Amino acid sequence: MNPLHDIRKKFFDYFETRGHRVITSSSLVPDDSSVLLTTAGMQQFKRYYTKELDAVQDFGSARTVSIQKCFRTTDFEEVGDDTHLTFFEMLGNFSFGPVGTDDPTDYSIQGYFKRSAITWGYEFITSVLGISPERIYVTVFEGDERTPRDEASYAIWHNEIGLAKERIRLGSRQDNFWGPTGAEGPCGPTTEIYIAPSADEALAGKGVEVWNIVFNEYIARMTTGDKQEFQKVDQPGIDTGMGLERLLTITEGKQNIFETSVLRPLMDTIRIHMSHVPERDIRICADHIRGSLFLMSDGIVPSNKGAGYILRRLLRKIIALKITHDVHVDIFHEGQRMVEELFGNIYPLIRESERMYAVWKEEEERFQESIAGGLKELTKRKEISGADAFHIYESYGLPYELIKELAPPHATATMRQEDFDAEFKKHQDISRAGVEKKFGGHGLVLDTGELKARDSQEMDRVMRMHTATHLLQWALRTLLGETIHQMGSDINPDRMRFDFNFDRKLTPEEIQAVELMVNERIKEDLPVYYKEMSKDEAVASGALSFFKEKYPETVKVYYIGSPESGGVVSMEFCGGPHVERTGHIGVFTITKEESVAKGTRRIRATVA
């Protein structure tokens, strides 16, 4: 079996037999609007930790296991060394409480805590993966004036697992305490499993962190005197994370992540056409090609903002390296075929090669047109400030990093990222004010999480698709039954994504019927309007709500249709904005229907 598939199967099988439900990776575009991209396996489960949602009700177990697509932008400058990537996959097992016996031999669906999490982590690495126990050492939280030492984890490792004290190291809050994100929220100590090349190196603490196990047993609160206090929670949770690429480095005995089975084939493909290029630049191309394809597979397109800017930065770095090293082969196309071969069976969206390649070509052509003018501008300047860099970015589309890379070294000696960022923020504030004025201060400006747009033209298109989601939910409930409800959505000017609960794939006939029902309501040019009322009144009226959302005491309910137009078609809790009549939506087209997780389906669609 392919090593990449083998390790996935072992991980899922091990935890599934221990009462965990296998959950499909969520999108790199998270439902949580507080973050730009999905950076960890626990993100799709945040509301289960806060008890807003019930895991047993939704998954049939308080235990889940996943291999999550992740993307981190904090390490851009380090990509190309032995350990850093933008896109990676995170293996994780999770418990949302309440804790049952916490006996590692208890394979029920109850929650668990430190004994089970530590025992299973150690057992998977040693017994399933065959790593020698002599190569392992661990860290636990040493405690400080705010929260005590994690005595329980230390005792489990030493007394139950049997690790010698020399193999249990104490770590500070910075290294062995997670959270909270911000001043308040769930948090707790961590224990980390390290694997060293040899027994001697393990005793000397010279290994690689492989598995981080977080014990969410505290909640941080700010007191009236602005002091942070930590209180024990009634139902602690487990959140673990293990990087797949880093794990493969260990199990395959490689020196770095780029030599593993998950990246080596891509590296070899690129090297055929870039044999004269420094190794680090080949690694950057491999990372950026893979990362950009996964971003595009989740519907992200290049732009000057948010996730679209991250994608643009990746693609333009590839182009810049091609120019710098005089590479004339389409290395993106060559790399794309290898990524599809490696990941197509795991992530079907990565097979949408024609669509994603078209995005690459459009961006390449756009950048080629602007780069000539940008380079000319760069070479004639004796000095480039951060503000100058932003104006060059505005005019020619060259991101800060490429300006720094392509400009003469003497010209960028005083150029600072913070000055560039300040100008960028000024530009965003001006754009935001203009859109707020046009749309009446809805608060739905450029990026609200569910809806994304950067100017008034895009906002118009986003509103059309937003109203279409209400009609889509009505059509699904009419066709498939009133147990259907929204599980999540994401809308940008190019497409809409709507998740709903259903336990099987829709047939082609059902997809066609849903599409037809929505378009019929659009042709009827029904009125769209809202009424403000108390939350209790809205619930009593039968208005649909997004079950993951917490609503204020006074809410807006949006209606499609009226008694005068033949009856109300849709009635939902919603903050808006929407079009005034359905006729403005245009033609609604479903582009894809797919599985997201067990019992959850996703529809992707557009309007024209």
Describe the model.
By secondary structure, the chain is an alpha+beta fold. It folds into 3 domains: 3-258, BirA Bifunctional Protein, domain 2 (2-Layer Sandwich); 276-327 and 342-429, no CATH class; 456-607, 2-Layer Sandwich (Threonyl-tRNA Synthetase, Chain A, domain 2), CATH 3.30.980.10. Helices cover 40% and strands 21% of the residues. The protein has 19 helices and 16 strands. It has helices at residues 3-16, 46-49, 55-59, 114-128, 151-161, 173-176, 199-203, 244-251, 264-273, 279-297, 306-324, 331-343, 353-380, 386-396, 400-406, 417-438, 456-480, 508-523, 535-541, and strands at residues 21-23, 63-71, 87-95, 136-141, 168-171, 177-178, 185-195, 208-222, 228-243, 486-492, 495-501, 528-534, 554-562, 567-573, 588-597, 600-607. The strands form 3 sheets. Strands 1, 2, 3, 4, 5, 6, 7, 8 and 9 form a 9-stranded mixed sheet that branches. A 4-stranded antiparallel sheet has the order 10-11-16-15, with helices on one face. Strands 12-13-14 form a 3-stranded antiparallel sheet. The longest helix is centred in the middle third of the chain and has 28 residues, at 353-380.
